Amino acid sequence: MGILESKEPKGPLADKWTKHKNEINLVNPANKRNIDVIVVGTGLAGGSAAATLAELGYNVKTFCYQDSPRRAHSIAAQGGINAAKNYQGDGDSVYRLFYDTVKGGDYRSREGNVYRLAEVSGNIIDQCVAQGVPFAREYGGLLDNRSFGGVLVSRTFYAKGQTGQQLLLGAYSAMNRQINRGKITPFNRHEMMDLVIVDGKARGIIARNLVTGEIEKHSAHAVVIASGGYGNVFFLSTNAMGSNVTASWKIHKKGAFFANPCFTQIHPTCIPVSGDHQSKLTLMSESLRNDGRIWVPKKKEDAEAIRSGKLKPTNLKEEDRDYYLERRYPAFGNLVPRDVASRAAKERCDAGYGVNKTGEAVYLDFSAAFMRYGKEAANTEHIENPSDEKIRELGVSVVEAKYGNLFQMYEKIVDQNPYKTPMMIYPAVHYTMGGIWVDYNLQTTIPGCFATGEANFSDHGANRLGASALMQGLADGYFVLPYTIGNYLADDISTGPISTDSPEFIEAERKVRSEIEKLVNNKGTKSVDYFHKRLGKIMWDKVGMSRNVPDLEKAISEIKALREEFWKEVRVPGTMDEMNAELEKAGRVADFLELGELFAKDALHRNESCGGHFREEYQTEEGEALRDDENFMYVAAWEYTGQPADAILHKEELNYENIEVKTRSYK
């Protein structure tokens, strides 16, 4: 078992990043023209990194499996982006954002990284405003803010319910400028298949052209992985169907340690599963919890009547409703962190109070918000003695202006009007806090290979606060990596172009081609989705919202058996030398089948509950997560040695010098 060094700078917390930037090596502009960087993934983390690196003068190649960077999954982040601007004057600060993030992650994140994230957060907003991102504004012209779970201030900047899309368009426009200048060469509809290491350093990738099937070799002086998270290991998740772990898993198998794979976020505000036909789940933005109140019936007979269609939720009296988050967590109410809200919803539904046909849904109700906003609007418009109907009408208009596209999306999917009947929601797999281990410079355990955004593990601990994903992705891409990668590349200014004719590239290409041929030549009888769905069911049932030793041990053995069956029985129609969507899926599911076992192994080894990792053996009398700080205050980073079962554990001890570590409480 090894001890990992984070390379976090010494000294006062508030000075670390500034001091580090002043001391690291730089590459002068003339030398940057001779250095190539590959960026895999073009969402917010990858797109912002590619644009900034090209702006600095590096030659950048970008790779994404989508037909355009605009289709990256970052587009689906609806609710907002956090930044410590304190525009509302409600007491926010860099330190408070840092504190909320560490506390929200249940004290399982690296202090120095999180403070740096909070420190540069304000710069992100300025950068995006300069790009023309249309953030919502208040009447006076200042950017508006709303609150998200786990905080007591309003620090979330937003663009209606399309924040991720608008931020991505900002990064994409910055990329396009560099593409036009010839500093970025985009390779869309390409998938990274392997990392090439020459003399111990990452020197390029093997990619497959998803249109022609051609296997290509691409070299560079450094490789950046920004390919997102691995939530689709559960099959049903809020991720785009193409989201995968392949790029991260390939570098893991080449020597990059995989950290905290069991730290996966269950989002409380998703549209419930409606049947076996579904391929993905849809997220309702957490921003809705600002104004929606979450409840279930107080009486089981009322819940049963609602499930059977004999009672409408709008006919249930106020005193017969259980606003359970407000009851259990009065200080934060409906804005408790995601892990807390998700477990509370599961507890109510498991106890028999669920409200849809399957019994796995709770209500998100805006009726109180309609009346509250309506009264404000009536006062503003000087309407005397308005009727309740008029007040509600005015309030609906206000809510529609704030969340209209989200309400439209819900109605289109569920075929119910959320202005007239409460939304139904239930927890679902959303974000992954685990990922490739990186040091303070965002470098993996492979020299020259970096990881940014959701692909790395570094900032969110065991639970991510809402609106912090966009913050981390853009912080890494715009303001952190462009500095830290220069420190590494300063030693490469005289290296010259990297040849793709070396034995390492030729062997990597041969290996990739062999693995693809094995898939297309397999004479199985079952589809890729057949195996992915079975893996997802094992993961959700045994490694999902709550975990225990017997289930985790079963999951490990079942996943191992399923992986063996996959390689015997999977059938991939078509050939490798053409566009072949089933072949793409097969490669990704093969990687998920290995990751799933490591995921369960990590959950089994961590004998505590923290954040999104809830072990049933470790909980308080009130059913809250029970941490074990004495034995598990570390990052678990796993080294690949041939099989997930044989992965070697390395620990990065977590030290908190600026925050008092205590039991999380949102009461």
UniProtKB/TrEMBL annotation:
The keyword Membrane applies. It comes from Gillisia limnaea (strain DSM 15749 / LMG 21470 / R-8282). Its cofactor is FAD. InterPro entries: FAD-dep_OxRdtase_2_FAD-bd, FAD/NAD-bd_sf, Fum_R/Succ_DH_flav-like_C_sf, Fum_Rdtase/Succ_DH_flav-like_C, SdhA/FrdA/AprA, Succ_DH/Fum_Rdt_flav_su, Succ_DH/fumarate_Rdtase_cat_sf. Residues 36-470 form the FAD-dependent oxidoreductase 2 FAD-binding domain. It is a peripheral membrane protein. It is found in: Cell membrane. It is an enzyme of class 1 (oxidoreductase). Its main location: membrane. It catalyses: a quinone + succinate = fumarate + a quinol. One of its GO terms (molecular function) is flavin adenine dinucleotide binding. GO terms for biological process: anaerobic respiration. Pfam families: FAD_binding_2, Succ_DH_flav_C. Signal peptide: none annotated. GO terms for cellular component: plasma membrane. Its EC number is 1.3.5.1. The active site is at R338 (proton acceptor). Keywords: Cell membrane, Electron transport, FAD, Flavoprotein, Membrane, Oxidoreductase, Transport. Belongs to the FAD-dependent oxidoreductase 2 family. FRD/SDH subfamily. Residues 532-666 form the Fumarate reductase/succinate dehydrogenase flavoprotein-like C-terminal domain. This is succinate dehydrogenase.
